[in-house]
Automatic annotation (TrEMBL):
GO MF assignments: catalytic activity, acting on RNA; pseudouridine synthase activity; RNA binding
Superkingdom of origin organism: Bacteria
Stated name of the protein: tRNA pseudouridine32 synthase / 23S rRNA pseudouridine746 synthase
One GO biological process term: enzyme-directed rRNA pseudouridine synthesis
Protein species of origin: Kosakonia radicincitans
InterPro entries: PsdUridine_synth_cat_dom_sf (IPR020103), PsdUridine_synth_RluA-like_CS (IPR006224), PsdUridine_synth_RsuA/RluA (IPR006145), RluA_PseudoU_synthase (IPR050188)
Family, per entry: Belongs to the pseudouridine synthase RluA family.
Pseudouridine synthase RsuA/RluA-like domain mapped to chain residues: 24-180
């Protein structure tokens, strides 16, 4: 049974911020609410790739961020650079660090979430935790602060600001792992991040790719890119 993607992305009026560029690669800050790649539906033409290829002809994406996720992405300007960077990602020598707001107060100060992930055709585009048929997935978390956000009605929304490090790169990994932890990412419509009273008012998915460590394929320079979370 084939799954049909009926999602139509609303217009994204935020610009892509170029943080670094040379003849080999481009480092950008992706806005929330922009697809990484254009969809099959012609109404989903706008994307990171669609915009950048107008400026950097021949550029290709090395990795993606979910539609609602903002933050750091590295983009290759030719096929050779793409292959070299993809190899770093596949060998897991690239470190990705995310900032997130989770619903509720996470009990442990830090920990590891190890839970296998599988596609869920019946609930597309959602993924599921499945110990038997899923692909192994590991994420590390560290709590930065626990606080209460005052809502318009005066109620307090308990939140945890965390740092997330995915050790594997499964689809929706951080979002479903946080749900599995019992603390969905605030604003996450697929994995329970709008269910807590007050959470439905979240303006976006509160997940930001805040650090990216990789080696430049030509200069062998270690890139320690950082971009602070906007929330």
């Amino acid at each position: 049974m084939s799954t049909i993607d009926t999602f139509i992305a609303p217009p994204c009026h935020d610009n892509i911020e170029t943080l670094y560029q040379d003849e080999h690669l481009v480092l950008i800050n992706k806005p929330s609410g922009l697809l990484s790649l254009s969809g099959k539906n012609p109404q989903n033409l706008d994307s990171v790739h669609y915009r950048l290829v107008q400026i950097f002809p021949g550029c290709t994406l090395v990795h993606r961020l979910d539609f609602g996720t903002s933050g750091l992405m590295v983009v290759a300007r030719n096929k050779a650079i793409n292959a070299a960077l993809c190899q770093q990602f596949s060998q897991r020598t690239v470190t990705k660090v995310y900032s997130a707001l989770l619903c509720g107060h996470v009990h442990d100060d830090e920990g590891v979430i190890a839970a296998a992930i599988v596609k869920d055709p019946a609930c597309f585009p959602r993924m599921s935790i499945c110990a038997t048929g899923g692909k192994p997935a590991r994420s590390r978390f560290r709590v930065i602060e626990r606080f209460y956000q005052t809502q318009e009605d005066g109620n307090l929304l308990p939140l945890s600001r965390v740092e997330l490090i995915p050790e594997t790169g499964r689809t929706h990994q951080l979002r479903i792992h946080c749900q599995h932890l019992g603390h969905p990412i605030l604003g996450c419509d697929l994995y329970g991040g709008r269910l807590m009273p007050g959470a439905e008012r979240a303006s976006r998915l509160m997940l930001h790719a805040s650090a990216l460590h990789f080696v430049h394929p030509i200069s062998n320079t270690l890139f320690n890119a950082r971009h602070d979370s906007p929330f």
